[in-house]
TrEMBL record:
The keyword Transport does not apply. PANTHER family: EXPRESSED PROTEIN-RELATED, PECTIN LYASE-LIKE FAMILY PROTEIN-RELATED. The chain crosses the membrane at residues 406-429. Keywords: Membrane, Signal, Transmembrane, Transmembrane helix. InterPro entries: Pectin_lyase_fold/virulence. SUPFAM superfamilies: Pectin lyase-like (SSF51126). The keyword Membrane applies. This is Transmembrane protein.
Amino acid sequence: MKGFSLLFLLFLIEIFNSCINCQCIIYIRVDSVNSNITCGSSIEDPCPNVSTAFKACDYVNSKNPQNNTSMTFYFGSGVFVIPNDISFIPLILYSNQSISLNGVYGDTVFQFTDPTKHILTIMDSVDALPSDQSYFTMSNITIENQSISSTFIQVDTQITKSNIQLISCNFNNQSLTNSLFIFNSIRSPSEFQLSNCQFQNITIPSDTPIFSMNNIQFQFENSQFIHNQGSDKNQSSFIEVSKSQGIFEQCNFGYNLNYSTLVNVDVSSTITFSNTNFQWNYLSVGLLVSNSSTLNISNSEYQNNLGDFIQLQSTSTLQVNNLTIQDNIEFRLFTCNQSEIQVQGTNSIQLNSEGTLNDCINLCTIKTLNQLTDDFECPQKPIQQQETSNSESVDTSKSTSKDKKIIIITTTITLSIFLIIFVIGSYIYRKYHHDPIKDEYIEIN
């Protein structure tokens, strides 16, 4: 019995050592000269570039193929150029696999030389189960100064779930031809987290959002979206959300130019904005558009923007608490169609902007608004009644026109009578009153 226990213990130790040896952890520094396939196993012996690092990781995993589920890379300071023809692109992450890319905050830069394929694609493995998950983490890395014609991350899962985290990452000076992020989960909603990230000076083409998210649970916190620009043709929102649940916490949207909206929320989504500011944005359509979804906005500010605040369509719901709106131009607070607005708390909306307050098209209600003005009231009549009202206004205009004609005719008749009386009176006066000069002339003769 003791011999069996000893053998079993040795077996467990062997498995443990095997897992340690197969764990792919690779270090990379731009000043390294070691290009061997065994490079990167320690910080003292790093690989020189991304391509060599992935080859080294493949070598580690090849020794233990049953455990090649995890890849972790640590990058030092410097600019890492990633050519288009590098062998590992597109990088495919399957179910129950994980990839972690870690840099030095502000000092680790990736430059892609115009890739034409997706950088990272996450998909189901052949034998995937609904309980399987894949993981991708990127921290302290800047992607900049490249014209990217491919998608940076694309999630295309049918039954599995993916978990993506971007922590302290920057995407700067990008001229895109495709979306940076495309998330499409069919069965299980994937998870996406942005924390302390920045998206700056990104230009998007027509019909191409920066983020396209379907069936996603996401959280954006402490992140900046500034100086981004959309196309003036076939406009698209910067962020498009469908069938998703998400929150923007302590984010800032500033100095963005778009001929559409910043955020478009569609089809049974619930999105929350908390402690989030929108300042100095130029938006032709407006900040937010919601279609058959729910928006929650609290403790946030909308200042010095050009464009509407929110458009609600097709049974959307908006809940507002402690919102400051000031110094906006060409502005409407709510454009509402078949939707409901709920305003909570005292002084929930502090408003000081030019423009109309609301444009309520049909079947809209505003509930529990605590304001000293009735400008926020929305009509609750259906279109048919509005059309009736319009016909009544037409009848009223017709009657007004008739009244004007009667007044003109009456005035004309009165003036005519007065003129006749004046002529007759003048004739009578000349007939019965003599001219004194003429009488004197008769007497002398």
